[in-house]
Amino acid sequence: MKEEKREKAIAELNYPEAPKMVTEYPGPKSKILWGEDFLLETPQRATGLAWVTAVEEAKGACFKDADGNIFIDGCSSIAVSSVGHCHPKVVQAIQEQAARLGHGFDLCTSMKVKLLKKMIETAPPGLKDSSFITLVMSGTDAAEAAVKQAKMITGRINIVAFEGAYHGVFGTANAMTTGAVYRKNYGPLMPGVIHLPYPYCYRCPFDLAYPQCKMQCAEFVDYQLNKPYTGKDNVAAIIAEGIQGEGGYVVPPKEWWPMMRKIADKNGCLLVDDEVQSGFGKTGKLWAIEHFDCQPDIMTFGKAVGGDQPVAGIFTKAEYGNKLATASQPITFSGNTISMAAALANYEIMLDPEMDLMGRAEKLGNEFQMMMKEAQKTIEQIGEIRGMGLLQGIELVKDPKSKEPVNRRAILGLLTGEMMSRGLWTVMAGRYGNVIRFMPPLTMRHDHFIWCIETIIDVLKSKRDELSR
Ligand SMILES: Cc1ncc(COP(=O)(O)O)c(C=O)c1O
Prior knowledge:
Layout: H1 3-12, H2 28-40, H3 47-50, E1 55-59, E2 62-65, E3 70-73, H4 76-79, H5 88-100, H6 110-121, E4 131-136, H7 139-154, E5 158-162, H8 171-176, H9 180-183, E6 193-196, H10 216-226, E7 235-241, H11 256-267, E8 270-274, E9 298-301, E10 312-317, H12 337-351, H13 357-376, E11 382-388, E12 391-396, H14 408-422, E13 424-425, E14 427-429, E15 435-438, H15 446-462, H16 464-468
Parallel strand pairs: 3-13, 5-6, 5-7, 7-8, 8-9
Antiparallel strand pairs: 1-2, 2-3, 4-10, 9-10, 11-12, 12-15, 14-15
Helix pairs in contact: 5-12, 6-12, 10-11, 13-15, 14-15
Pyridoxal-5'-phosphate is lined by residues 138-140, 143, 166-168, 241, 245-246, 274, 276-277, 302.
């Protein structure tokens, strides 16, 4: 498909008039609904509390609220809507499947078989055509399933995770997650989780600079796992995110994943790649791990795989199947047929060579980097711009020399509120809450994409003084 034809097809997936604010943000109807919801749902949830809008419908990279305001979705509803909201092919697949068969507890369905074949055929090296899949309901479940299998396969009990990690909010997944807000008053957390430093080069835990550092952080993992008397024994798995997400879109240097592979092999433990956030096309390849020369033993997936439906799970190397007891993990809703149908349609859209959405993500990612780096020359609060494809983060600092993070409260109130009032939804991340994450649907219109970047730049310029305080 020629570029022009593809862009035309993409434009048709979106509201032509977006962004369009017909009321002030928040609009009056949204405010009332939001107030009701506030009392009905748990205060533990996140996004619904921070963004005062009641979403009624969505199309492509846009959503409409109860007041008729049309926003541009700069975060794919938290890394989920990669092919865009309500893609007509996904909607059709859901409608057709819903009329035939919704649920069939753990049974074989032709829809499930079709999807799993497609997934295994397109898995990254090491898992492609040589793995099996465990289906669960959420990314948290996927992390739990990975840990459970790693323990059962190795007969060992400890897990190495990394500082800055996010793997979920219950059980071992929560214990592997490092954000204080997720851990407070929940302890004692699941025992057996060891955290080691992550290659966060902008704020190197060893105060070194890449590449002169000679990958000190990875060498430290090797030391901890493979030298005597460190107390880090009986390790079942090393688990890390393909690219760290909640931790601030931190991309590890190219050597890091291959080094983790070698360390795991030397130790005899498994290597688990959590692709719940970084996976499914956003980085320009189907799986982020494909950018690195590394083959994990287990890989998790979730979020964008389901095409707006909750589909999550793990790939496991086929050779480990005989270590897992039959019927040791029944899950009522796993393999829900409507979700399988949505995911299959979603896969077909993502892998369509004519549309080449992943190639487009890579191209747009380069454009994002170029424009933001240009803006960085005049906005000194832009500390670092990093990412791959359409998974990009902008780390904000008060001052580029000291790298002191901007004030977390200032960010939420000032920046994201101002962006929403202009019609752009973005979400923050990072250990200090100071990273704007930009991960729009891969079907965002190009003019919308440029508008998003210009809006982010303009908002940063207009709030410069407040950010430096
Ligand atoms: C890397 C990673 N793993 C696991 C999870 C948990 O996924 P869920 O929210 O679907 O439980 C997330 C969610 O953001 C994630 O980013």
